[in-house]
Request: fold
Amino acid sequence: MILLGYSFETKKQMEVDAFFKGLETEIHWLNSLNQIQDLMLDKDIGVIFITSSNFEDKEGIYEVSRHLSQSFLNLAVVLIADENSLDIRKAMRTGVFDVLTGKLNEYQVKETLKEAEKHITFQTQTLSKSEGKNTVEKKARIITVCSTKGGVGKTTFTVNFAAAFAKQFKKVAVIDLDLQFGDISMFFNCNPKKTIYEWVKEGRNDPKAYMHSYNDYLDIMPAPIRPEFSEAILDEHISHLIERLEPMYDLVLIDTAPYMEDKILTALEKSDDIFLITFLDLPTLKNSKIFIETLNSLSLDTKVKVIINRDSNKKGINSSIAEGVLGLPIFLKIPDVEKVVAVSVNEGTPYVYSSPRARISKLIYSLALDIAGRPKSQQKKSFFSKKGSVVGR
Ligand SMILES: Nc1ncnc2c1ncn2[C@@H]1O[C@H](COP(=O)(O)OP(=O)(O)OP(=O)(O)O)[C@@H](O)[C@H]1O
Ligand SMILES: [Mg+2]
Reply:
């Protein structure tokens, strides 16, 4: 059993430390949720105490609680709330084990731990009977974003989808597979020292050492600095890179160049989903159709999810015409919002961060929530049936 504390002030940490003085309870004080996975890996049971007082955004505490309760079945989440600062019913609905109010006292803390231990033991025993003690999902979902035409918004979508995923405390690796002219780093306003080229040239060791860490949850494998370096990168390197990243992340998201080549095909073969970005105009739809037919001949078409970008009422082609041309349902329609997107691109900050309340940000966030919220096996079955929740028809 391990006791974790998140967002505690030093004074409160010392109070709780004192309750366990001389006892063997392992206590860790955390400032980042990133550490939890490592700390929990070899533990049967954990209890995390989270104080509400340091959360500026009140919704944040519910998000953190939901994320932890859903991700770690062997971790009991206990919120410590200042009087009236939390909606207790709302908190309980996120899956927390308990909410403590008022001043912490030794009896209350120890009693909560005892009860949490009983609860988790029961929960994990029941679960392990049916599906083993598989508490931490280790395999990333792999999604490649592609198009047949340049400038349709692949990179804009990729950076925002990745950021929305990271906002939910899910670990994301973005690979810039537009190897000649990739601009993922620019969209994130970062200046990477190393790229996929150095990773290949220096012997393909730990890929993380070659990635740019944008924040605790989001890492980027940038495209080479110069277009000619892309020739050094071979199909098998792409395969190897994806395989190395897969166990380390919840999502591996791959941005591509607007044409088909073997390296991109390798990524498509390794992907769980292929997000095909297109416009509602006939030439782009026609090209997309040819692309889908090519994927069909490679038996990859079942992975395709069609995303219409820059949707507006002005184009004269509606969803059913587009679906007729493509022979596939439209999975998502992203509105044309030049102002929000242009500001975000020029600032180098994903719009889900710079304009979180904009409709486009909420749409991308809800797509990420939809994909992050369910285990990979369930998503595969229910992606299209859940379409209504994310498709902006
Ligand atoms: N939903 C949107 N609304 C308004 N503008 C958008 C939207 N999505 C993308 N854009 C704009 O479209 C332009 C092209 O986007 P982006 O670079 O993401 O396309 P791309 O498909 O990655 O291009 P390339 O194939 O050249 O890599 C950008 O300037 C961006 O600001
Ligand atoms: Mg691009």
